[in-house]
Design a protein that fits this description.
The chain has 778 residues and is of the alpha+beta class. Helix content is 30%, strand content 20%. The protein folds into four domains: 228 residues, beta-sandwich domain of Sec23/24 (Immunoglobulin-like), CATH 2.60.40; 272 residues, von Willebrand factor, type A domain (Rossmann fold); 95 residues, Sec23/Sec24 helical domain (Four Helix Bundle (Hemerythrin (Met), subunit A), Up-down Bundle); 132 residues, 3-Layer(aba) Sandwich (Severin). The strands form five sheets. Strands 2, 4, 8, 17, 19, 20, 22 and 23 form an eight-stranded mixed β-sheet that branches. Strands 9, 10, 11, 12, 13, 14, 15 and 16 form an eight-stranded mixed β-sheet that branches.
Length: 778
C-alpha cells in the first residue's frame, strides 16, 4: 500500500531500470540510459533524525547503513562498497543482535543526521535566511503598484529574524542602505559598463573589511556574522532583520517611483539587469559569504544596457527568436550567456541562490539567465504581469510557512558513492559540479559531470536530480566468480542547511540487482530487464536528455532521435514474429511508453516553433527540477470528464473525449483548462445554474472549478487557469494537447457534438501502426 501511495518509495529514488545489465554492450542494447531520479530532501513522514554524527568507512568514506555486514561478536562492520573491515568505536560497545543502532534497521535505508554547528547544541545561534530583493523600476505605474504590494505582503510573511536587503534598478542601479532609518542613503552604479566585485565593494565602503565581524569556522559550515543576532557592522548597513527594517522598507516603497530617465518614443527603456545582479552578488559576497542567501530578482522587461544585454534599445530591433538562435543571428546572446555563466560561478562559490520572477508580455532574457538560475538551484516564474495570479500567488508561496511551505533550504552538497563496476556520467538538474574527480567518474559526460560531488546552493522539498550511470566492469570482474555479489549499491549523501538554519546530513543507501549475464539465457536476461523497467521514469529521463541535447548539440533532430530510440527499444523488448506487424505485442511494463513518446514529440520541450526562447528555457528548467509525477503531467497531460450521468472520471487524451454535454478538466502542469461543451456553455449563459430546480447543474459547473483550485493550491509555480467553451478562442489550450484522432481530413467519422482538430499531425493510432511495422522489420 505504501508503494501505491508513494511511487518514489521511502528513499525518493526511481530508476529507469531496476535490474542492471552487467556489461557496456548489454547496457547499450537497453536503449534507455541507466539513470535514477533522486529527490534529495523531500518530506517523508517516516524519516528518522539522529542527534549524533554518522560512522564512516575508513577506506571510501561511505556511511554505515542497513546493507552493511555486521559481526556483533567481533564488533566490526564490512562496507558493501569497498568491502573494507571497520571497527565500531567504543560508544557502540553495547550493540548486539537484539540491540541494534537505528542506522542498521532494515527500514531506515534513508536517515538524517543533525550535524553539530550553529543552532545544534551550541551557543552560536543558527544563521537566519537572507533575502535580497532586486526590483526593476522600468515598468509602468500600474505594474510598479502591483510589485510594491507583493513586496509588502512578502515582508509580512518573512520570519522576523530573516535578513532583508533592497536594490532597485532602471537606467542605473540603486543599492539602498537600510541601517539609518532617519536618513535614506543610496549608492548608485552606472548601468552602462561591467563592474568587478572589487569595484562594488570599494564603492559600498566594504573593501578591506569584507571579513570583519566574522568568526572562523570549519570549511563547509555556514559563516555566522556576530551570531547575526544583532545585525551590526557591514551586515547591519545593507541587510537588516525583517522586524527591524519593516518601517524603513515600507517607507522606501512608498517613495519609490518609476525610473525617471526619459525614453524616446521609438526606444525601449534603458534597463541594466546585469549590473544590478552583479551588485547584488557582490554585496552578499561581502556580507554573508557561505551562509544561505537568495537574490530575488523581479524583472519587468529585457536588459538593454550594460552586461547581460539581450536586445538593443531600438524598438524596431526585435528580441531574439529560436530562428535567430539557430542561424546565429542573435548578436547579444553568447555574450550575455557568458556573463551569466561567470555570475553563476561567483554565486556558487559564495553559496548563494538567484531566483527570477519575470513578468512581462515580451521576453526578459530568461534563456540567457538560465545558466545562473539552474546552477544555483534558484526558482523561476514566468508571468504576463506583476498583477497576474501566476506571479502573485507564486511569489507568496515562497514565504508561506506551514503545510504549503516549499521548505526552501540552502548550501547543499551532494556526494554519490557506487559499487566498483559503476561510473557516474553526470547530473541534469539544479546543481553545479564541484570538479571532484575520481575513479567513479565516467569518460562520457552528461550535464554536470566529471565529479562525484555537486553543489546545490538552493534546494527544496521538490528538488529533483537525474543521475546518469555507466556500467564499466573491470577486466578482472567476473559475475560468475564465486562470491561475486549479485547486488549493486549506491549511496547518496546530502548535506544542507534547513530553513531554520541547522545543518543536516541525509543519507540514502539503495541496492539493485545485477542481471547475471554468464549463467542466464538471452530470454531470461531480457525477461529480468523487462520486469525492472519503469516506463514513467524512463519517459522523463528521455525528455530531459532530449532537451539537453537540443541545447548543446548543433543540428540535433530530437523527433528523429526519439523515434529511432523507440523503434530500437520495441525491436529489442517487444514480442513478435519477424516481418509480421499484426503479431507485435508489448509487455505491460512497456505498454504506455510509446504513448509517452508520442506526446513528448508533440510537447513544448521538443516543438519550440510556437514558443519564445524564454518560454522554452522556463519549461525545461521546471522539467529538470520536478519529481516524476509532475514531470509526467508536463509530457502527457491528464484529462478528467464531468457529466450528469456519471461521476468524474479520467478520460482519454483524445479529441473524441469532447462532447457537447460534458465538462473537461485538463491538467497540463503549466496551465489548467476547464473546458465546457457547447450545450453546457449555452445552459450556463442562460443562467440555469441560478434556478433552484437546477441545483444539479450548478454542482456540475462547480466540481471542475473546485478540483482545479485543489491542483493549483499544491503547485509551484502556480499554473495559469483557463476557463473556456467549445469553439471559443481559448479552446486552443485544450485542443493543442489532444490526440488528433479526428482532423479536418476525417470529419465524416466525428460523433455529433464532438470536435475536430485542424492539423496534419499523425494520430496516436497511425503512430503506433508505423512503430509496429518498423519494429518487426528484419
Amino acid at each position: 500500500m505504501a508503494e501505491m501511495v508513494d511511487p518514489d518509495g521511502p528513499d525518493g529514488v526511481r530508476m529507469t531500470w531496476n535490474s542492471w545489465p552487467r556489461s557496456k554492450v548489454e547496457a547499450s542494447k537497453c536503449v534507455v540510459p541507466i539513470a535514477c531520479v533522486y529527490s534529495p530532501i523531500r518530506t517523508s513522514p517516516d524519516l528518522l533524525v539522529l542527534p549524533y554524527s554518522p560512522l564512516r568507512c575508513k577506506s571510501c568514506a561511505c556511511i554505515l547503513n542497513p546493507h552493511c555486514r555486521v559481526d556483533f561478536s567481533g564488533k566490526f562492520w564490512i562496507c558493501p562498497f569497498c568491502l573494507q573491515r571497520n571497527s565500531f568505536p567504543p560508544h557502540y560497545a553495547m550493540i548486539s543482535e537484539t540491540n541494534v543502532p537505528a542506522e542498521l534497521f532494515p527500514q531506515y535505508t534513508t536517515i538524517e543526521y543533525a550535524l553539530s554547528g550553529p543552532g545544534v547544541g551550541s551557543d552560536i545561534p543558527a544563521p537566519p535566511p537572507v533575502f535580497l530583493f532586486v526590483l526593476d523600476t522600468c515598468v509602468i505605474e500600474e505594474e510598479l503598484g502591483f510589485v510594491k504590494s507583493a513586496l509588502r505582503q512578502a515582508l509580512g510573511l518573512i520570519p522576523e529574524n530573516a535578513l532583508v536587503g533592497l536594490i532597485t534598478f532602471g537606467t542605473q542601479v540603486h543599492v539602498h542602505e537600510l541601517g539609518f532609518p532617519d536618513l535614506f542613503k543610496t549608492y548608485i552604479f552606472r548601468g552602462t559598463k561591467e563592474i568587478s566585485k572589487e569595484q562594488i565593494l570599494d564603492q559600498l565602503g566594504l573593501a578591506g573589511q569584507r571579513a570583519a565581524g566574522y568568526q572562523k569556522v570549519p570549511a563547509g559550515r555556514p559563516v555566522v556574522a556576530n551570531g547575526m543576532t544583532t545585525a551590526s557592522g557591514i551586515v547591519g548597513r545593507f541587510l537588516l532583520s525583517a522586524a527591524d527594517c519593516e518601517y524603513t522598507l515600507n517607507s522606501l516603497l512608498d517613495e519609490l517611483q518609476r525610473d525617471q530617465w526619459p525614453v524616446q518614443p521609438s526606444n525601449r527603456a534603458a534597463r541594466c539587469t546585469g549590473v544590478a545582479l552583479s551588485a547584488a552578488a557582490g554585496l552578499l559576497g561581502a556580507c554573508v559569504q557561505g551562509t544561505g542567501a537568495r537574490i530575488i530578482a523581479l524583472v519587468g522587461g529585457p536588459c538593454t544596457e550594460g552586461p547581460g544585454t539581450i536586445v538593443s534599445k531600438d524598438l524596431s530591433d526585435p528580441v531574439r527568436s529560436h530562428k535567430d538562435l539557430d542561424k546565429d543571428a542573435a548578436p547579444h546572446f553568447h555574450k550575455a550567456v557568458k556573463f551569466y555563466d561567470n555570475l553563476a560561478k561567483q554565486l556558487v562559490s559564495q553559496g548563494h541562490v538567484l531566483d527570477i520572477f519575470a513578468s512581462a508580455l515580451d521576453q526578459v532574457g530568461v534563456a540567457e539567465m538560465k545558466v545562473a538560475v539552474e546552477r544555483t538551484g534558484g526558482l523561476v516564474v514566468l508571468a504576463e504581469s506583476f498583477g497576474h495570479a501566476v506571479f502573485r500567488d507564486s511569489f507568496k508561496r515562497i514565504f508561506d510557512g506551514g503545510e504549503q511551505s516549499l521548505g526552501l533550504s540552502f548550501n547543499g552538497t551532494l556526494d554519490i558513492h557506487c559499487s566498483k563496476d559503476i561510473k557516474i556520467q553526470g547530473i541534469i538538474g539544479p546543481c553545479s559540479s564541484l570538479e571532484k574527480k575520481g575513479p567513479l567518474c565516467a569518460d562520457v559526460v552528461i550535464g554536470q559531470g566529471n565529479t562525484t560531488s555537486w553543489k546545490m546552493c538552493g534546494l527544496d522539498k521538490r528538488t529533483c536530480l537525474t543521475v546518469f550511470f555507466d556500467v564499466a566492469p573491470s577486466e578482472k570482474a567476473n559475475s560468475a566468480a564465486p562470491g561475486a555479489s549479485q547486488q549493486l549499491y549506491i549511496q547518496f549523501l546530502t548535506t544542507y542547511q534547513n530553513p531554520e538554519g541547522q545543518m543536516k546530513l541525509r543519507v540514502s543507501t539503495i541496492t539493485r540487482k545485477w542481471v547475471d549475464g554468464s549463467t542466464s539465457t538471452e530470454e531470461l536476461k531480457v525477461q529480468e530487464l523487462v520486469e525492472g523497467f519503469d516506463q514513467e521514469t524512463s519517459a522523463v529521463v528521455m525528455a530531459r536528455l532530449a532537451s539537453l541535447k537540443m541545447e548543446v548539440e548543433e543540428e540535433f533532430d530530437a523527433t528523429r532521435w526519439l523515434d529511432r530510440s523507440l523503434i530500437r527499444l520495441c525491436s529489442r523488448f517487444g514480442d513478435y514474429r519477424k516481418d509480421d506487424p499484426a503479431s507485435f505485442n508489448l509487455n505491460p511494463s512497456f505498454s504506455i511508453f510509446p504513448q509517452f513518446m508520442f506526446n513528448l514529440r508533440r510537447s513544448q520541450f521538443v516543438q519550440v516553433f510556437n514558443n519564445s526562447p524564454d518560454e522554452t528555457a522556463y519549461f525545461r528548467m521546471l522539467l529538470n527540477r520536478e519529481n516524476i509525477t509532475n514531470s509526467v503531467v508536463m509530457i502527457q497531460p491528464s484529462l478528467i470528464t464531468y457529466s450528469f450521468n456519471a461521476p468524474p472520471a479520467p478520460a482519454l487524451l483524445d479529441v473524441a473525449s469532447i462532447a457537447a454535454d460534458r465538462i473537461l478538466l485538463l491538467d497540463a502542469y503549466f496551465s489548467i483548462v476547464v473546458f465546457h461543451g457547447m450545450t453546457i456553455a449555452q445552459w450556463r449563459n442562460m443562467g440555469y445554474q441560478n434556478q433552484p430546480e437546477h441545483q444539479a447543474f450548478a454542482q456540475l459547473l462547480q466540481a471542475p472549478q473546485d478540483d482545479a483550485h485543489l491542483i493549483i493550491k499544491d503547485r509551484f509555480p502556480v499554473p495559469r487557469l483557463v476557463v473556456c467553451d467549445q469553439h471559443g478562442s481559448q479552446a486552443r489550450f485544450l485542443l493543442a494537447k489532444l490526440n488528433p484522432s479526428a482532423t479536418y481530413n476525417s470529419a465524416q467519422d466525428v460523433a455529433p457534438g464532438s470536435d475536430v482538430i485542424f492539423t496534419d499531425d499523425v494520430s496516436l493510432q497511425v503512430f503506433f501502426e508505423h512503430l509496429q511495422r518498423l519494429a518487426v522489420q528484419s
